[in-house]
Amino acid sequence: MNNNLNDVFTTTISGLEKAFVVQDITSSPLITCKSEEELSQFLEKYPEFDIVPLEQDGQIVAIIEKDSQIRKPIDISMLVSAEESLLNFLPYLEQQSFYLVLKGTEIHGIVTRSDVIKLPVRLLIFTLVTHLEMVMSDIIKNEGGKEDEWKKHLSKDQLNRLKGLEKKLRSENINPSLIELTYFDDKFAIVGKIRSLGAHFESEMKSIQNLRNTIDHSKEYAQNETALKEFLCQMERTDHWIKYFSN
């Protein structure tokens, strides 16, 4: 089973890395303040800009942060490839609020923390959490024993919900596997008991479930620095548990 899970993990992560890249959330073409233009005039035209790229002789030479208005020459720490995986890149936004995006050797766009709410990021996170849920399903199938055995790990409310859904589907001549009817919280309750993972595991799973609910209902999740930090922690928790179970 472990080899199978590891193969699925490797294939899934490889697919996610190729499917979702920095280019997908880049604001492009890059709007710049020309060297001969007054910064105040530029900001009047673009009051929503927190980061102002400065252009001289057709090249981006520096950036100015709106709040401090300090000019910072371009250096390598500000750059990211357009082809960089979002899965690898997103945690870096906790360290720095923006990155200039390279396509080939040219700067052609910018990514800021506000871009974390764009659709490709939502799709990436939803896919990650779904993958975690599928991994837990495999654990239950392989380690949970028969239905009567793994069902004993569910609460009374969870069991009643499961039985109600099963009854409804059978009345419609649909007879799926019972594990397919379990919810995310059902699965982590069962896996937590099977593997004796304790309260810490349950707490982290609830956090991940909240993340998926937020994504699923199109709510904001990075509206400020604190929210962004929690979002990135939830993403890293999801990745951690996928790797833990798969390896």
What is the topological layout?
Layout: H1 2-19, E1 33-34, H2 39-45, E2 51-56, E3 59-65, E4 71-73, E5 79-81, H3 86-89, E6 98-103, E7 106-112, H4 119-143, H5 147-150, H6 156-171, H7 184-194, H8 198-216, H9 225-246
Parallel strand pairs: 1-2, 5-6
Antiparallel strand pairs: 2-3, 3-4, 6-7
Helix pairs in contact: 1-4, 1-9, 4-7, 4-8, 4-9, 7-8, 8-9
Ends distance: 10 Å
Total number of beta strands: 7
Which structural class should the secondary elements be placed in?
alpha/beta
Unreliable residue runs: none
Summary?
With 247 residues, the protein is an alpha/beta fold. 51% of the residues lie in helices and 14% in strands.
Question: What features would you describe in this structure?
Answer:
- This protein has 2 domains: 21-113, CBS-domain (Roll), CATH 3.10.580; 119-246, no CATH class.
- It has 247 residues and is an alpha/beta fold.
- It contains 9 helices and 7 strands, in the order H-E-H-E-E-E-E-H-E-E-H-H-H-H-H-H.
- A hairpin with a 5-residue loop joins strand 3 and strand 4 (71-73).
- The strands form 2 sheets. It has a 4-stranded mixed β-sheet, with no helix packed on it.
Descriptive terms for the model:
4-stranded mixed β-sheet, 2 domains, 3-stranded mixed β-sheet, CBS-domain, 7 strands, elongated, alpha/beta, 247 residues
